[in-house]
Design goal:
This is Transcriptional regulatory protein WalR. The protein has about 170 residues and is α+β, with helices and mostly antiparallel strands. About 35% of the residues lie in helices and about 15% in strands. It has 2 domains: about 1-65, no CATH class; about 90-165, Winged helix-like DNA-binding domain superfamily/Winged helix DNA-binding domain (Arc Repressor Mutant, subunit A, Orthogonal Bundle).
């Protein structure tokens, strides 16, 4: 079975050695500059993680390093404000995206409707329980394989909602 990802820890000595070695080679890849820049950013503390992706025949690599959130078949990309499910883009309204992103970046944490409202709308809570519930319902219809048995946005009865920490 092919793994989706592999995480390898690298210390500063290895990063420096790899950087120095790559710098001396005459690499013919059009991506070598990006790799060197990524290693430089890693060594300077500009980034904490460097993600590498392989380009196959006929494929284009477009900014492999991103700040996406990945949970099962769901991908959330805050910079481009895109959500993909199984590789297919899901069209969300701005508030649906904001709610999903807020919950996902706080994976496993339970939030009341009031907390979600204040985080997403950035204003005082005005008894908008049904408003939040409606947004969650619409969001689930778009991202959940079975909205009646959600996998991603879970209801914590009597409290509120959370983004799953099981995937």
């Amino acid at each position: 079975m092919k793994k989706n990802a592999s995480f390898i820890i690298m210390d500063s000595a290895l990063a420096k050695s790899l950087y120095d070695t790559l710098k001396t080679l005459e690499l013919k890849s059009k991506y070598s500059h990006e790799l060197l820049q990524g290693l430089e950013d890693l060594m300077e503390g500009e980034v904490a993680t460097l993600m590498l992706g392989m380009v196959g025949p006929g494929e284009n690599l477009v900014h492999v390093v991103d700040d996406g959130i990945y949970a099962g078949a769901l991908e959330i990309h805050p910079k481009s404000r895109k959500v993909l499910h199984g590789g297919i883009e899901v069209n969300l309204t701005p508030k649906e995206f904001d709610i999903l992103y807020f919950l996902a970046k706080n994976k496993g944490a339970v939030f009341t409707k009031e907390q979600i409202y204040q985080a997403v709308w950035e204003e005082d809570y005005l008894m908008a329980d049904s408003n939040i519930m409606a947004f969650i319902r619409k969001l689930r219809k778009k991202i959940e394989p079975d909205p009646d048995a959600p996998e991603y946005v879970l209801t914590i009865w009597g409290i509120g909602y959370k983004f799953t920490d099981r995937i």
